[in-house]
Amino acid sequence: MSLHDVVVWSYDLAGTELRFSPGMDALLGLAGATDEYVRDRVSSLLTPLTQAAHTAPVWDDLELDEWYERDDGDRRLLRFRARKYASGTEGGLVGVATDITRTAEDQQSLRDLADRYRLLVELSPDAICVHQDGVVVYVNPATVRMGGLASSSQIIGRPITDFVAAESLDEMYERLASLTAPGTASEPAQARIGTREGDMLLVEAVSVRTSWEGRPAYQVIMRDITAQKEAEAALHNRAALVQHVSNAVIATTAEGVVTSWNPAAETIYGRTADAVVGEPISRVVGAELDPARVLQHGVTDAVHRHADGSALTIRVSVASMDSGFVLVCADETARRRAEQHYATVITALNDGVVVVDPRGVIATANPAAARILGTTQAELTGSRAGSWTFHDEQGAPVEGDPVTWTQRSGSQRNSLVLSTRRPDGTEVWLAMATRALDHGGSAPYAVLVSFTDVTESRAIRAQLERAATQDPLTTLANRTEILKFITESVHGDSAAATTGVLFVDLDKFKVINDSLGHAVGDEVLRVIGQRFLRQARPRDVVGRLGGDEFVVITRDDPTPEALVEIADRLRADLTQPIALQHRQLRVDASVGVVLVHRRDPRLAEDILRDADVAMYQAKVLGGRRCAIFDVDLRRRMQRQLDLEQELRGAADAGLLHAVYQPIIDIPTGEIVAVEALLRWNHPEFGKVSPAEFIPIAEESGLINDIGARALRTVSREFMEHLPTSGWRLNVNLSARQLDDAHLPDIVRDAVSSSGLPASRLCLEITESALMQDLHNAGDVLAKLREPGVSLAIDDFGTGYSSLAQLHRMPTDSLKIDRSFVLDIGKTTDTDIIVSSIIAMAHTLNLAVVAEGVETEEQLTMLRDLGCDQAQGFLLGKPVPIDALEGEIARCRQQRYADGH
C-alpha cells in the first residue's frame, strides 16, 4: 500500500464538519463527483464512529471496517481508523481511510490455491501412491489407470510388494533405506510393476519420505516410461531423431559431442541445431552432463541453462547407441516453478493454513498458522486437530468442530468466527474456513483449514459497542442505555405494572473538584457508582448521565413509599466516608423520584426530565432529601424555567424597576434612609415576587449582571430625585454577588458615575450569606468598605451567627428580621431575643434597624427596647422614587389621624 492509497479525513464534533484530503472520490469510485456528494457518502459510512466519539476518551483509537458498493457495482471493503482529540463538543476525530479489499480477496485466493493443490495431485498424469509399513494407503486416479484397475479400493490396503516385480525389490528397499529424514527424496530410478492383466510396466520412480496420519510413510511418484524406452530402443536401432516429440532429443558421440539436435531441443534451450552440432553437450546445455554416468544411474534431474542464461529444470534419460548416446531431456521448469510459487504463497500468507489428514492429524502448517495459534510448526505438525477446543461468539463450546464436520461431509464451511486458547492461556479469535481436499475419494476426507486472527478487530468492535452504551468513567449504563431501559420497562412486551426512576444529583460536588482536583472527583464518582450497584437489586439498572448525575431504575412494581425507602437507602450508603488521599470525604445527594405506570404516554426523555424536575425541587428545599414528582411540580418548574428564560431580557426591556421604602430614626421620627428594592412586572404573570425571581437569578448566574445594573440605576435615580435630602441609600447584595471578584469595582463605578457620595451608600448582606464562608466574606466586606460605603447585616437572627463572628465582620449596622418584629410584645421569648440582639449590637457599636414594623405597638416596644431605626408598612410602603415623598406624607398623616 502506498501513500496514494491512504486518504486523510477529520471530523469536528462541535460543528459536525467533515473534511478529507484529495483522493477520497477515487477511493469511493466517485472520481469527478462534487465534494458535497462525496462528503454525504463518507458521512454515512462514518456514522458509527462519529456517534461513538462523543463518549470515547480523549486520544482513544477507533476503527471501523465497512463494505461499500461503488456506483459501478464493485464492492470494496474500506477501513476507517481515527483518533479522538480534546473532549466534549470542543473535540473531534482525525483519521485515515484505506481500501482493504485485497485482504478479503486473499481468502478466495487461498481457496483457489487449495483447488489447484488438489487438482495437482488428482489430475497429475504421473501415478502417485503412498505406502506405510509396506502397505498402500493412498493412490491417485493415474495409479488406478496405470494398473488397469476399476477403483482405488483394489490397491489400497494391499502390500506394496504385490505390485513390484521381484527383480526390482532389492533396489526399492535400498532406495527407501536411504531416505532417513522427512522430506528427503530419492534420485529417479527405474522399476517394473505389474498390472491387472499380468503385464509388467517399466516405470521411473521417485520416493519421498513423508508422513501419513502422523506416522512415517513414503510417497512414490511413478511415470510409465515403457513407451519412452521403446522409443529409445527404436532410436538406437534406427539412429534417428524423433522430430515430433515435445522433449529435447539429443544424440552425442561416446565422448559427449553433439551430433544431432531436434526442434524441441532448439525450443527448450534457445539454440539452433547448426550452432550446437559439434559442440560438447555440457557446453550447449550450460551444465556438466556425462551421458555415460546418467545411463548408469538412470533418470536424473538437473539444472541446465537457456541461451539467455535463465535456469531450466530438466529431467534427463539416456540410451546408448553403437556410436554414442541418445539423450531425452524433458523441460520441467514450468511445473517446478508453479510448485514453488504455490509453496511460497502458502508460506508468505498472513492467514494461517493447515492441512488435516483424514485421521484428524495436522499434516502441514504454514508459519502464520503457528504464529496465530501461539506454537511452532514442528509442534503443530503431527498433532491432532481435535485437541483445539473452540467456543462461539456467545462463549458456548462448539459441538462438533468444523474440521471434523468437513472431514465427514466433504462440504466446506465459511465465515466461522470462533475462539480458542493458545498454549500460554491467552484467547485468540479466528475467522475460519474449511474445505475438503480429496473429493474423489470417500470420507473421511483430508481438509484444508484457513483462518485469520481477528482478535484485535473484535476487541475494537467490542470497545465501540461499550462506548455506545457504557459510561467510560464508571462503566455504568450511559444516557443512551438508560433511555432504552426506561422505554423497555414502560412500553416493552414485558413491562412491569409500575417502574420507578430515581434521579440522583450529588450535593455540592463541585467543592470536591475545585478543592481536590478532577482526578479525586472522578475516583469519588467511581466509588459512588459501585455503591449504587451494591444497593441495586437484580432487576434494577444503575446508570450515569454525566457529571455528578446518576439514575437508578427499579422495575419490581414499586410503590411511592418503596421508592422513598430506596432513595433513603441509597443516600445512607452514599454518606458513608470515602477514604481518598488520606482524607475522609463525605457526600450527600438530592433525589428526584418518578413513579411510572405501564404504557405511560410519556417518552423516556420526558420521564427522565420529570425525575430531574423532582430532583431540582429537592435541591430547592435544601438538598439532602428526596422529592416525588407530580403534575403541580412540573407546572411550577415550567413556570420557573419560563421566568429564567424571560429574566434574561427583562432588564433590557425595562420590566425590572426599583421601588424605595423609607427607614426612620425611632427617637426622632425623622427619615434617615431609604432602601431600594427590585421589582418585576411580568406581562403575562403580573407582579413576580422578589422571593421568586431573585433565587432564579442566583441559580442561573444572572444575579451579578442584574445586581450591577440595579446598583447603577438606583444610585442614579437617588441622586436625580433626592440629591440634597441627606438620606442614606440602602441596596441589597446577593450571596452570589460576594463571589464576584469585580464587585468592589462595580460599587466604585456606581458611586462615581452617579455622583452619590460613598458615605451615603449602605450595602446590605444577609446574615446567612455571611455565614457560608466567614473568612472570604470578611475579605470581601473589607474591600467593599474601602471607598467609604457602610455595610449592614440583613435578616439578622436567621443565620445562627455568634457574637464572636459578628465582631470579625467590618459592618456598621444590623437589621432584625421581620419574623421577630412580628411577634414582639406577644411572647416573652421573642422580647428577650430582640432585647439581646439590640444589646449585643450596641456593645459592638452597631446601629440596629427593625424590619417589618406594621403597628404602633411594635414601634413603641422597639423604642422601649432601645432600637435605633425602623422600617415597615407603618412608616411607608415601597414605591417608585417619584412617589416616595407623597408616601411618607400619607403615612404621617394617617398616624396623626390615629392619634400618634
Describe the secondary-structure layout.
Layout: E1 7-12, E2 17-20, H1 24-27, H2 35-53, E3 61-69, E4 75-85, E5 92-99, H3 101-122, E6 127-132, E7 135-139, H4 141-146, H5 166-177, E8 189-194, E9 200-212, E10 215-224, H6 226-238, E11 248-253, E12 258-261, H7 263-269, H8 273-276, H9 281-285, H10 291-297, E13 300-305, E14 311-321, E15 324-331, H11 333-348, E16 352-356, E17 362-365, H12 367-373, H13 377-380, H14 402-409, E18 413-421, E19 427-436, E20 447-453, H15 455-469, H16 479-491, E21 498-506, H17 509-516, H18 518-535, E22 541-546, E23 549-554, H19 560-574, E24 578-580, E25 583-585, E26 589-597, H20 604-620, E27 626-628, H21 631-650, E28 656-665, E29 671-682, E30 686-688, H22 690-700, H23 703-721, E31 728-733, H24 743-754, E32 761-766, H25 767-772, H26 774-785, E33 790-796, H27 803-807, E34 813-816, H28 818-822, H29 828-843, E35 847-850, H30 856-865, E36 869-870, H31 884-897
Helix pairs in contact: 2-15, 16-20, 17-18, 18-19, 21-22, 23-24
Architecture overview:
- The protein is 39% helix and 27% strand.
- It is α+β, with helices and mostly antiparallel strands.
- The model has no long low-confidence stretch (mean pLDDT 86).
Please supply descriptive tags for the structure shown above.
alpha+beta; eight-stranded mixed β-barrel; 900 residues; 39% helix; 27% strand; five-stranded antiparallel sheet
Question: Could you give a short description of this structure?
Answer:
39% of the residues lie in helices and 27% in strands. The protein has 900 residues and is of the alpha+beta class.
